[in-house]
Amino acid sequence: MHLYFSEFHDKGTGIIFKIKKEVYSAVSPYQEIKIFDTCTYGRLLVLDGLVMLTEKDEFVYHEMLVHPAFSFKSVVKKAGVIGGGDGGTIREILKYRDVEEAYLIEIDRMVVEASKKYLPFTASSLKDERVKIFFEDGIRFLNVREEGFDLLFVDSSDPVGPAKALYSKEFYESIRRNLKEDGIVVFQSESPWYHLEIIKKQIDGLSEFFNEVRLYFAPVPTYPGGFWSFTMATNKKLKKQRDFIPPGLRYFNESVRENLFWLPEFVKNVTG
Amino acid sequence: MHLYFSEFHDKGTGIIFKIKKEVYSAVSPYQEIKIFDTCTYGRLLVLDGLVMLTEKDEFVYHEMLVHPAFSFKSVVKKAGVIGGGDGGTIREILKYRDVEEAYLIEIDRMVVEASKKYLPFTASSLKDERVKIFFEDGIRFLNVREEGFDLLFVDSSDPVGPAKALYSKEFYESIRRNLKEDGIVVFQSESPWYHLEIIKKQIDGLSEFFNEVRLYFAPVPTYPGGFWSFTMATNKKLKKQRDFIPPGLRYFNESVRENLFWLPEFVKNVTG
Question: Is A155 a catalytic residue?
Fold first, then answer.
């Protein structure tokens, strides 16, 4: 007998995984958390029925959320992550020696605890002494502070339920307040195949607070449509300021960096 | 009640479609052919259990198989397609007025007949007077000819069973013989997530017959991993020779063309 887990991305299409076994299941104050061993993608983290990461392909998502922005900053002393309780984004940030502080602001302590136990390939990064974890609502955290981040990464859930506020103008404004003047924020921004209207809304919203707002993509096979978008926003000019690329990356490299910003016609038609 | 169709890409992961109804089903001398109406991706063509195209996303695959090569040729008088009985590749080729002849060499007449009837969005192109259809084995067709194609597109099934010979050196050699000296061939070359060894083998094989062999990618959500590769081979220098891009494309544009050739690190590590 085999279990199957499937996530539908719309009313008729989805991804299906053959499951070896369930290794963790809990309901936190915020969401249902499940971790499975799959037959071919290693460990799988599912929040409220949606694939958050698999052991096999999380490297693409985490590398592409983090490394492009680093290449536009010569020095990053302080970086922050909103969400990202699995630790994958922090893991990539820590690959830069100039980083002195990496903040993780994650609302759900149970995601972090489960990740530390069952997803060491991402969460072991959280033990690093440069990491400070705040179990708080990211919106409220930024709302009352001026942290002076060089880089901020919004590694959030999909914009349904509480995560919806992560797409609000109040949030964009408090991000700008918590960034240094030449800081950069990067949002995971959903699938161009399923969420093009969300992407457009986010670009339009961010454009009210930042001069440069750029969309880029990466292929993540276990996310809806197998193709994911990221939105980068800043008030400085985006130009390469760092040659160093951490050794051992599996997706990001010089050739990806040099061809970062392109838009398929069906995306351009919507986002302008 | 709903039917579901699923294709597994390995022993544990796949795509699943909710089906409205089966509109065609037959077994030809070469393969099992099925056409469905899906709930969210329109018409779906399945050969031997594998997704060949859906109405919603076929544009990416067909545009990206065809248009990059055209941009490297100032004039294309004669183009050929091996496989591609659904007509989508021919449809894109015919968007260039300089094309005088477009050959379709498709082994399976029943695929063409079914496509004409049930997939008009791709197959209506086959009625154009510039099109010549040969219901023949592509390998045997090229083997005994010297056609002088400007461009050849290998729009084949996956390299299992009879299509395996499409990855042989004899085939590469007969392609070179059927191309003009400055001709270009483009292969669909499978998913970097599931077929990296095939991609490598194909690049290595083609490199024995062509000076320039370049891999490029496009996101096709209903193909394994949602991300597809194409391999272009030629004995001339690849440089832009045509500004014209046909109006009405939905994926390919100037920005895609200018950022065509990049390789993620995990691909580069294998293909070199």
Answer: yes
